[in-house]
Design goal:
This protein has two domains: about 230 residues, Spore Coat Polysaccharide Biosynthesis Protein SpsA, Chain A (Alpha-Beta Complex); about 60 residues. Helices cover about 50% and strands about 10% of the residues.
């Protein structure tokens, strides 16, 4: 039984203090290593060329900064030109342990998943080691990601330590992926449209002296709106364009009833306050019944959406290993 051919893509931007050591920790199971210097002002790509003699390492330079997504798209395209079966994303800041690559790709090798992600929240130990600001930020972004992508089974959807089967990667519209920090979430959105199986792999992140390039203010401003758009795109594609089910009716009908009950109830309350005449039982029921029915229909839709998480891998069964 032959082993899978693995390629690793390392986006490189302001990671000059850690990238060389990170590359040195990548094991012999990896056949190709692509370091994408995303117009790094520190010259991390040149540093790798000078300090790393590993023949597996190839440095690709961007003339302008495209963001982590742009760097990954370049790396993915380069990896697809090789015979690699699985492509791993490994950040160059030292937070992701290269020794975990075999564990990360195992669900793909075993035919259980198309795409795997590290899960830093699997244990209480992992939670306690994560800085508080990252923990709260990750919790909020994780909820938004679950809603927009439909991968409700994921514990740590914003984790960037990932692996993907080449067949699935080739099926994704790489040119349409977000080129900045929204890349990981947008990747999951595209995978959800493809109905790919995503698998969490427990891991521990290593937090040291590295500094994140992610702006918290920009994240709070941009990410909710992008998740909002992806959520509606997913709903339209999965529940109306590609397939129609009971959930396709439950969602709009539930919203319509709930909003009608709410608006009618507020209007009736305001009228009662203005006239001093209490609303009749019938008037109250006209407001309450649609509210209850609408809420129940919305719950039914969410239940259907949670149960619709993909479970059948999309990559080809004729595996070389």
């Amino acid at each position: 039984m032959s082993k899978p051919v693995i390629a690793v893509v390392v986006p490189s931007y302001k990671v000059i203090s850690h990238v060389v050591e990170t590359l040195s920790e990548i094991g012999k199971e990896v056949s190709y290593i692509f370091v994408v210097d995303d117009a790094c002002p520190e010259g991390s790509g040149k540093l790798v060329q000078e300090k790393v003699s590993d023949s597996r390492v190839k440095v690709i330079f961007h003339e302008e900064n495209l963001g982590v997504g742009g760097a990954m798209i370049t790396g993915y395209k380069a990896a697809l030109e090789t015979d690699a079966n699985i492509i791993v994303k490994l950040d160059g800041d030292g937070q992701m342990d290269p020794a975990l690559i075999n564990e990360l790709i195992a669900p793909i090798v075993n035919g259980r998943a198309d795409y795997t992600k590290g899960d830093r929240l699997d244990t209480l130990t992992g939670l306690s080691q994560m800085p508080s600001i990252r923990l709260f930020g990750n919790a909020g972004l994780s909820l938004l990601t679950k809603i927009s992508t439909g991968y409700w089974n994921m514990t740590d959807p914003t984790n960037g330590y990932t692996a993907i089967h080449r067949d699935v990667l080739k099926a994704l519209p790489l040119g349409m992926l977000s080129k900045r920090f929204f890349f990981e979430s947008d990747m999951l959105f595209r995978l959800s449209l493809y109905r790919a199986v995503v698998w969490d792999v427990p891991m521990q992140a290593r937090y040291g002296t590295e500094k994140s390039n992610l702006s918290i203010i920009k994240t709070l401003w941009e990410f909710p709106w992008k998740h909002f758009k992806n959520f509606h795109k997913r709903l339209f594609y999965n529940y109306y364009l590609r397939d129609v089910s009971a959930a396709s009716i439950e969602l709009p009908l539930g919203f319509a009833l709930w909003w009608f009950g709410l608006i009618f109830g507020i209007a009736s309350y305001n009228q009662s306050m203005a006239t001093g005449v209490a609303a009749t039982t019938g008037t109250v029921m006209i407001s309450v019944v649609p509210l209850i029915l609408g809420f129940q229909l919305l719950l039914a839709f969410v239940s259907h959406d949670v149960s619709a998480v993909p479970t059948r891998p999309r990559h080809k069964g004729e595996l070389p290993w």
